[in-house]
Amino acid sequence: MEHLDHAAFGWLTPVLSYVMASIGAALGLRCTVRALAATGTVRRNWLLTAASAIATGIWTMHFVAMLGFEVTGTEIHYNVPLTVLSLLVALLVVGAGVFAVCYGTARGHSLVLGGLTTGLGVASMHYLGMAALRLHGEISYDPLLVCLSVVIAVVAATAALWAALKISSPVAVAAASLLMGAAVSSMHYTGMAAVSVSVSPSDEALPGADAMQFVFPLAVGLGSYLFITAAFVALSPRVGERAATDSARHPGERPVAAH
What we know:
two-stranded antiparallel ribbon; elongated; 3-stranded antiparallel sheet; mainly alpha; 259 residues; 71% helix; 8 helices
């Protein structure tokens, strides 16, 4: 077994990854609040934005944290198709969970089903991302810690979906986002604690792309998406504000509900 370093750049990658997860959670919660106040295609669009924000935050958290992952005695590369697939899995499962909870008739059952589906999907995203690693050696896992990481993912996902339904004030959203960021980070580092690597030194070139060639530019791009979307959400009027503006422009007309 070789030495593993989960924070090769010190606190930079753990803190930055936590910030990205928290921003994605905050943006997702705010978009869900907007969705629940709307109907029709407007609701659908807000939910799509919420799902993409949460999923992007989770995925970016994972791979920003992975930038700090080093194994003594071998380089680390990433299989590009598997890495992209892990992002698509995150988007699909978070979207499924958000839509199931917001459109479900039985909120309790929808919350449990959505939390379970989303949590298992987030765990799948994590371990797909780990399966994308290419190094000189073999990776093995501690089954107990893997199971614990999956449980954390399910609990965190369920709590996130519950918060999306119940929390609306900006202060509560901020607090919930910080807790969700901590939960996602805990899931990641629990999963990473399960990892052991048996290195087989070799001079052969590793397949795939290294972190700075592929993961870093993609993480920067997705992080930029989060910040741009956050600015858009912050500047877009709420349903009530839009109705008030319409009333001011057309005082003789009744405001029309969003569809």
